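Tokens for chain A. Residues wanted.
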């Protein structure tokens, strides 16, 4: 059945979101309709709102939804109406990557997360009262959760216990998974190894909390914002470096003369990444997580890599959400991953203020409340 909902619609690049009444399409096989109660805002939403990245408009963004399943389509067995769920990125389940437990590198990732339509070609929603002429694109990360209701898939709908509130759950779907997964799954540092986090937004602080949990030391946070560095210290950073244009590699080597074992870069800023490569120990690894603006190029001295060093990327923390999100929630509940300290909640209607506060650095992880 088509479902009435309210969605924050992005109608033009760079425009503010407008809350509008919409009608969701009926769900099909393998799909799940979720009543969204909370949705985090991630910098990927901000990037799509700001830059031309090929996504069709008007569109509903939002990819950290949490809520309660309302209905499931034919063939869905792992979740049922009434289940509390966290929504993550979508994957096909059949391609070589998905078959090898790496759904984050799904061959159909773009189709399932960015195409703007459901796989059968339908628009996931229309403007209320406008019928087919009022098509609104969605399916963003297999969800589009800046809305009271979303259509997701069984594969990206993660059933969770009903014991955590939705605002706490929502950021597990992307930002926390991305930052923490890069440390727990991609880099896998041992206790006593050193790690630097460059850029202490929510993803960087998630990486930092994971590294603190694994007892990395020294554990160094780098940012331009002194308040963020104070927060990083309270979350376990042993050292901080205020990025003020001075030689970052030298500042890291002043703390660790032999170089750092692991670096997580969340800035996507060429000179910062270049400086990071100059601070790596032999066999050190630098993982890049940020989607950089179009036209970005990075130059490094290639001889740096000869010391067994590696520069790599990672998507969604190399995590299978069905496995990793319940694991990370357990880590949180054990007091080892206190990401709730990063969250500031906003009523859904204040989505534009929440985005502005995130961009200015006033808040770390805004989470919208839909109920
Ligand atoms: Zn796949
Ligand atoms: Zn994200």
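Reply:
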């Amino acid at each position: 059945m088509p479902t009435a909902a309210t969605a924050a619609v992005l109608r033009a690049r760079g425009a503010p979101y407008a809350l509008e009444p919409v009608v969701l399409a009926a769900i099909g096989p393998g799909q799940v309709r979720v009543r969204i109660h909370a949705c985090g805002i991630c910098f990927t939403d901000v990037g799509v709102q700001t830059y031309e990245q090929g996504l069709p408009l008007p569109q509903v963004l939002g990819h950290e939804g949490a809520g309660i399943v309302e209905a499931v389509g034919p063939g869905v067995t792992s979740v049922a109406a009434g289940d509390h769920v966290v929504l993550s990125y979508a994957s096909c389940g059949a391609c070589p990557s998905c078959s090898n437990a790496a759904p984050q590198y799904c061959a159909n990732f773009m189709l399932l997360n960015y195409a703007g339509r459901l796989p059968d070609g339908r628009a996931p929603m229309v403007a209320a009262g406008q019928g087919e002429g009022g098509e609104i694109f969605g399916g963003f990360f297999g969800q589009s959760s800046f809305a009271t209701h979303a259509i997701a898939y069984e594969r990206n709908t993660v059933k969770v216990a009903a014991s955590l509130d939705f605002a706490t759950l929502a950021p597990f779907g992307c930002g926390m998974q991305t930052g923490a997964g890069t440390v727990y799954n991609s880099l896998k540092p041992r206790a006593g190894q050193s790690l630097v986090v460059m850029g202490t937004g929510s993803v960087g602080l998630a990486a930092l909390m994971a590294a603190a949990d694994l007892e990395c030391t020294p554990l160094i946070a780098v940012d331009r914002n002194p308040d963020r560095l104070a927060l990083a210290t309270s979350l376990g950073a042993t050292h901080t470096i205020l990025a003020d244009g001075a030689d970052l590699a030298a500042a890291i080597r002043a703390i660790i003369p032999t170089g750092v074992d692991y670096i997580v870069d969340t800035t996507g800023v060429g000179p910062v990444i270049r400086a990071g490569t100059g601070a790596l120990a032999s066999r050190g690894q630098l993982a890049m997580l940020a989607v950089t603006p179009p036209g970005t190029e990075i130059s490094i001295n290639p001889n740096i890599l000869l010391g067994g060093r590696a520069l790599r990327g990672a998507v969604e923390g190399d995590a299978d959400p069905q496995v990793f999100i319940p694991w990370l929630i357990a880590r949180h509940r054990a007091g080892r991953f206190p990401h709730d300290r990063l969250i500031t909640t906003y009523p859904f209607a204040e989505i534009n203020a929440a985005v502005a506060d995130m961009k200015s650095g006033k808040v770390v992880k805004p989470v919208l409340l839909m109920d």
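The pocket of zinc ion (ligand 1) is lined by residues 91-92, 94-95, 97-98, 103, 106-108 (CB under 6 Å). The first strand starts at residue 3 and ends at 10.
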